[in-house]
Amino acid sequence: MFRKSTAEERIRFYREEWNRRDVPDFIMHTLSLREFGFDLDGSGPNCRYNQFMMAEQLEDFLKNKAPYSAYASVALYEKPSKREDWLKAELVFDIDAKDLPLKPCKCSAGEVCEKCIEEARVVAAGLADTLKNDLGLRNVNFVYSGRGFHIRVFDDSVMQLGQSERSQVINYITGATVPPQMTMNLGYSRVFRERAARAFERLDESKVTEVVKSKRVVQKIFSEREKILGIIKSGRIEDISNVEGVGLETMKKLLGQIAKLNSGLTDGKVTVDTKRILRLPSSLHTGVSMKCILVRSLDSFKLEDAVPKFMREGGA
Ligand SMILES: [Zn+2]
Question: What residues have a C-beta under 5 A from ligand 1, the ion?
């Protein structure tokens, strides 16, 4: 699993398995307004400014070139082949299993395994709940990218947002800023408590020592883990005075560290870039030999649905 595919496998995938029905409607219905980008041979996505007026043209391109990677813009343009006359752009979030700030596995940098992909799935589901329940967004879609998940939002209310507004949405849904008032029942205060509690449960010593220098205090934080978790969940951080050996200053450092880690749950550069190209659902992620696919429901997502035929048939 998760090995690179060969050039022959890529060709086989596009000739025998790729089907235009696997391209989501949200791409097909706006096909001629999107810029397509390709990495033809693994050297990077240098083949840009492509426009396809009809699905047949996209199909011909993919079957003939069998690209290393295929991408489509999150933006719609009047002139996508020039990347000009920008109309609007989806609000997107990229949750990459290899870049999760707190990984549940022993993967080294750049690697993924089933465990961290599962963690990315749960993170994506949590972020999507906040988009729907707190921000009232309705048209929230999911794509398995090959190494994690994309959340793609199409509500009219977000398609015109600029960079700074998009970056505020990231801060809100990931819990990337410590709120001035932590005990409010609703709104960002509650989102932060939830995200912070989840991060604290997954925190290891190395992440705490980055901000708390005293070994004795670090040990105390872990021996009083349950109490501190309760304080984070309630938001009453002054209650830390009941935990001997851990002061308010330490608690604030801890929350700051958690907020910083939370900001890494998604790749912020992807969200704020309103001209970004994202991996095309239906295409092959050659680096890991997985299909990038539309996910109807994150709850019922199965990794095996993304395994291309050549990997099932003893290609591994
Ligand atoms: Zn892993």
Answer: 105, 107, 113, 115-116
Where residue 100 falls among pLDDT bands split at 50, 70, 90? very high
Q: How far is CA 262 from CA 101, 121, 308, in A?
A: 7, 15, 33
The tens digit of pLDDT for each residue in 61-76 reads: 999 999 999 999 999 9
If you measure from the C-alpha of residue 105 to the centroid of ligand 1, how many angstroms do you get, rounded to a whole number?
5
What confidence tier does 316 reach under pLDDT thresholds 50, 70, 90?
A: very low
The Å distance, Cα 196 to ligand 1 centre, comes to 22
Distance of alpha carbon 190 from the chain centroid: 22
Q: Checking phi first, is residue 200 left (phi over 0); if not, alpha (psi -120 to 50) or beta?
A: alpha
pLDDT in tens, 150-201: 999 999 999 999 999 999 999 999 999 999 999 999 899 999 999 999 999 9
Q: Which of 39, 38, 43, 77 is nearest to 58 (CA)?
A: 38
The active-site residue, picked from 204, 267, 299, 305, is 267
| Structural element, H or E, at residue 204 | none
User: Annotated catalytic residue: which of 39, 96, 239, 273?
Assistant: 96
Please give the DSSP secondary-structure letter assigned to residue 6: P
Is 96 annotated as catalytic?
yes
Q: Nearest CA to 207 among 257, 134, 146?
A: 257
- Distance (angstroms) between ligand 1 centre and the Cα of 195 equals 21
Our answer to whether residue 155 is catalytic in this structure is no
Ligand 1: centre distance to CA 100 (Å): 9
Tokens read off for 307:
């395994």
- CA distances 70 to 39, 46, 152, 238, Å, are 6, 11, 17, 51
299 is catalytic: no
**Radius of gyration, CA atoms only, the chain:** 22
* Number of residues assigned to the chain: 316
CB 120 within 8 A of CB 149: yes
Domains belonging to the chain, first-starting first, are: 1-174+268-316 (3.90.920.10), 187-262 (no CATH)
